[in-house]
Amino acid sequence: MVKKSLITFFCFLFLASGVFAKTEQKNVILFIADGTGPTIMHLLMQYAKLAPNSPFKDRTSTLEKLINEGKLSLVYNDTAFSVVTDSAAAATQFATGHRTFPEAVGVDKDSNAVNSVLITAKEQGRATGVLTDTYVLDATPAGFFGHAKNRREYTILSKNLLEVKPDIVMGGGFNHFVSKNNLASGALTNILPKVPYASEITPKNQDDKTFENLLKSGYAIVFDEKSLNKTKANKIMGLFAAEGYPFNIDGLKNAPDLTTMTKKAVETLSKNKKGFFLMVEAGEVDWAAHTNDGATTLREMLEADQTLTYLKNWVDTHPNTLLIITADHDTGGFGFNYKKLTKEEKENKMDEGYVQGKYDYIAPETLDKLLEQKASFYILGQKFKALPKAKQTPQKAREIINENLALNLTLDQLGLEENQKDFSFEKSLKKASETLGLVWNTKQHTSSPLIAIFYGAPVKAPNIMHNTQIAQIIREYFNEEQ
Ligand SMILES: [Zn+2]
Question: Structurally, what CATH architecture does the domain formed by 372-436 represent?
Answer without folding.
Answer: Orthogonal Bundle (1.10)
